[in-house]
Amino acid sequence: MSSVRRVRRATTVVSAVVCAALVLGACGGGDDDSTDDPIPGVDQGATEDGDQDDTGNDADTEAPEEDVEGDADSDRPEIDLGDDFENVYEDDETGDETTDAILRDSRGYFDAVDAAIIHQDTEHPALSYYIAGDALAATMDLIVPLIEANRVPIGEARIYNRAATAVDDSTATVSFCREFSDVSNVDKGSGEVLSPPDPDAKAALYTTRLELNDDGVWQTVEYGGAREADECA
């Protein structure tokens, strides 16, 4: 199943500062470990169907699986990145529950960083929810200068060619292309355009490693990137 998901929100990386921001990858070489291999099942915490005891009564009063998932989703930090930017996710759903969960939480990485930049909030709860380990430390190093420079982007970014790869039951990689040719960089306070859109900007290939934490969230723990990769042509 293929779909396009549009998310109205401001994002962090713009063509003029793609290497400096590098919120979604790093300039220079990045390992592309992605394939079309299936992803192993995610422990969603779903309850088993209730069994009857020897008396014929229900031994358990179970919550439907969808209710459990709904409760988990309700704990996710709200991310509102405003109306001036749109992330367009292509091929957003595969039809496989586990793969889609990994891709969903990979989107959370984008959106958490974007929220911190737009709202100038280095303690935004989505940061530590979707990002951990080396990736969180590196992300903080990258977003703080952007916040201090008062730079925010407007426009539309396109994310495509996403692929999830199993490493083991609690580790996965996600690779994707991101294209910024319709994104400009503006001063948050004055609205002055600091860098206009670059229609010739080339998409960059990003590779991330995710780990499943105890709360069932696929957190991005490492990332890297390469500009003008063949996979993004």
Automatic annotation (TrEMBL):
Highest taxon of the lineage: Bacteria
UniProt keyword annotations, A-Z: Signal
Keyword Signal among UniProt keywords: yes
Keyword Transit peptide found: no
Signal peptide, first to last residue: 1-26
Record field: compositional bias (Acidic residues): 46-72, 80-98
Region (Disordered): 27-98
Transmembrane segments: none
Protein name: Lipoprotein
Source species: Streptomyces spiramenti
High-level lineage: Bacteria, Bacillati, Actinomycetota, Actinomycetes, Kitasatosporales
